[in-house]
Amino acid sequence: MTRKEQKEERRKAILMTALTLFVEKGYYDTKITDIAAAVPMSTGLMFHYFESKEELLVEVVKMGAEGTRALSGSADIPVPPDVFLTGFLTQMFAYAKEQPWVFNMFVLMSQVRRNGMPEDARRIASAVDSIDFTAQLIARGQQDGIFRDGDPVLMARCFWASVQGIMEEMAMDRNMAAPDAGWIVAMLRKG
Amino acid sequence: MTRKEQKEERRKAILMTALTLFVEKGYYDTKITDIAAAVPMSTGLMFHYFESKEELLVEVVKMGAEGTRALSGSADIPVPPDVFLTGFLTQMFAYAKEQPWVFNMFVLMSQVRRNGMPEDARRIASAVDSIDFTAQLIARGQQDGIFRDGDPVLMARCFWASVQGIMEEMAMDRNMAAPDAGWIVAMLRKG
DNA sequence: GAATTCGTTGAATCTGTATTCAATATACAG
DNA sequence: CTGTATATTGAATACAGATTCAACGAATTC
After folding, report:
1. Do residues A117 and A57 lie in contact, with contact meaning Cβ atoms separated by under 8 Å?
2. Interface of A with B (CB under 8 A)
């Protein structure tokens, strides 16, 4: 089994390296040889692990899709919606410093959803959906009178789009301080 | 002079077509032949107008850099900062529907600033800076007691990053309704 | 209306990079 | 140990797509 374990580790190493480089330099500017050199391993060997550069991206995105299930549970959360969202974002921004992995994944997933990436990957990334969940949460907050009026789905989309914008800004400049999660949740708050 | 005018118009047509396609499909997925076909003109002729695909991108970005000077004046604006920002965003979102050109330009400029685009273009896009101006505006709002405490520069960066995130979301789904500008300015408002 | 210049074309190159492959080394089974 | 399977390499190939170019057409000049 050592053999199989080795392979699995190697595979993960490639995925992680690819994730980092894709976010740092962008998918198209990241050459297969760059990833191979960074792992490190020979160029050719990459293709024993992944059929193509595109499949590699797809696998990274799949990995991200699994991890992001956190945000797609039921809206029956035992804390007020604003508290939940603030806490979630605070943790997420903290990761930006401590756990670049999670952070990079968030940024990559968002980027892939947008244009300019292979269609396969886009489809998978788009399937991950935190909008519905967040919209429910927002609707609840509206009933409780803590969130402003407005279409919850639109608000959820704008909320996450903002977060994404900020995460990308942080990805671009790793020295940037994380914002206060409260600032963003304030978008939703009443009055 | 008809000849010269023709050329200038053709040039603009290429720039506009390129802008649209770059935003719709992404820079790398947009082939020179795609742009040529859309203008329309032959592939070869493209190179009488622009030396290379990269130079074409750079020229589009330069065009954007000129237009974006709007946001880099002095902070001596005769209206309260929150009103100014709200008005500005409202207009900007309105453009998203009426004037796809301005809208696309905003999205492209933002994307180019981020990773994954040729360095030349990035430098030019990065030179356009609305952060300083906005930070001044925010500082003024803080003095007036209408904006929350916090580093004005960080707040300005987050503000524009949010706007960018939302604009990209809108670019991705042209049917999406524009958010209320007030939502975003609320990020800055004091509790 | 002949000469010259500029606009235009699309097929032929050239280039960068993903992908393949023949060869070699290393692990594992019997 | 021997044979078989798997890991690894880096140079050779394939290919997509940017770029060039030789030829043609249309405008402008004198």
Report:
1. yes
2. 23-29, 113-117, 148, 150-151, 154-155, 157-158, 160-166, 168-169, 171-172, 176-177, 179-180, 183-184, 186-189
Q: What is the pLDDT of residues A67-95, one digit of tens each?
A: 877 666 666 788 999 999 999 999 999 98
- pLDDT by residue (tens digit) across B161-184? 999 999 999 999 999 999 999 999
Rounded CA gap, B39 and B17, in Å? 6
Confidence (pLDDT) at A69:
72
β strands within B82-180, DSSP E: none
List domains and CATH numbers for chain B.
Answer: 53-186 (1.10.357.10)
Interface test with B, best of A82, A117, A169 (most B CBs within 10 A): A169
Residues 6+ apart with CB under 8 A from A150: B180, B183
Tokens read off for B32: 């020179």
Q: What is the DSSP letter of A147?
A: B
Contacts of B15 (CB under 8 A, 6+ apart): B56, B59, B60, B63
